[in-house]
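Can anyone check this?
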Amino acid sequence: MPRPIGWIGTIDDEGRPNLAPYSFFNAVSGMPPTFVFAPAAGTRRDTLDNVRTTREFTVNIVTEVVAEAMNATAASLPAGIDEFEHSGLTAVTGSEVAAPLVAEARANFECRVVDIVDIPDSAAHTLVIGIASVIHIDNNLLDAEKLHVDQANLGAIGRHAGTLYSRSSDQFSLDRPE
């Protein structure tokens, strides 16, 4: 089953940006807009170190257009290396958090950490929970009448196992029962 990809932007205590994709990620509430992602435990992760220190992050939605750049940011680079520069992306400063946004992403969320839960198993993950205080969405994606994002136009991708990804363009509709 495809998993959504949270492309998480952070900044360290020296002001250096970091960007990494997480497919153990999801939106878990609409009001307030709440997101979770889970960096792997047992290995050093700049993202996790940064959110523990700064208590903020950005979520940038991965689309097929930026898939190659997203993949480049998954590389295990030494601490302090700028993944934006490494992948040819543009870092944009948020309006409420210092963590960088991906300019090339069509939707971004500025988030503040509300909790970090260490899952007690060396093969498990740490769960980071954040609430979005600012939402940035490409105006061409908004259906003002329905107050929804045009999912087909967004073109988000999901991750399967290993090197497999899928497009979100194969959609169908089901009316909810009353």
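Reply from J.R.: I decoded it. The longest strand covers residues 107-118.
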